[in-house]
Design a protein that fits this description.
alpha/beta; single chain; elongated; Rossmann fold; two-stranded antiparallel sheet; 4 helices; 200 residues
Length: 200
């Protein structure tokens, strides 16, 4: 019993630490008066644990699915990239915006916005759920806020590592769903950070 409690505390403290934002550049106070952000995502050079590159990861997963079902490999590849617009962006947008009850701050596809919020995913771990055993998905992401017309003018830049997502009461068998919950968690955490550090 004692070992279980200690293990739970270690896991909790590890998770809390992993979700802490590391400021890389700028000052969160610079975001105080910004009400609207254009939201962009970048997956350049994203790392996949246990693989040398995203291409190697896709080749491995596609081959395994193709063995089970003809066309399964291409289906996985299409889903892997399609989830970025169909799941990750909507989840991040919804999770961020719902933290502001009166809509005083919002993110979305808005190229005319004066400022842009860029979410650069540097690492994606898909996790797994095979029924009796599961593990949360994780992402590392660098969030950069800059002037849309002048990207070199960075107001704030920070990094989240090992942001974990879980949902569906543990019945998260879909890879895209698990990963999308990581983006929801990251958005929630960053929105709260803005409210606490920039707006007060």
């Amino acid at each position: 019993m004692k070992k279980s409690i200690v293990l739970a505390l270690v896991m909790f403290s590890s998770l809390a630490f992993a979700q802490k934002l590391k400021v890389l550049d700028g000052d969160i106070k610079n975001l105080k008066d910004i009400t609207t952000y254009n939201l962009e995502f970048d997956y350049t050079d994203v790392q996949i644990p246990k693989f040398d590159s995203e291409e190697d990861f896709l080749a491995d997963k596609m081959a395994k699915r193709e063995e089970k079902e003809a066309g399964g490999g291409e289906k996985f590849k299409k889903s892997w990239f399609g989830d970025r617009e169909e799941r990750y962006r909507p989840k991040f947008t919804e999770s961020f915006n719902k933290r502001f009850d009166d809509g005083e701050v919002s993110v979305g596809v808005n190229p005319d916005a004066e400022y842009t919020m860029m979410v650069h995913s540097t690492r994606i771990y898909a996790g797994y759920n095979v029924g009796v055993v599961r593990r949360n998905a994780e992402i590392d992401a660098i969030i950069t806020v800059f002037e849309t017309a002048n990207p070199d003018n960075v107001l704030f830049k920070g990094e989240y590592t090992r942001a974990q997502g879980e949902g569906a009461m543990g019945y998260d068998f879909n890879t895209g769903f698990r990963i999308s919950e990581c983006y929801a968690k990251t958005a929630k955490t960053f929105a709260k950070y803005i409210k606490k550090k920039a707006m007060k």
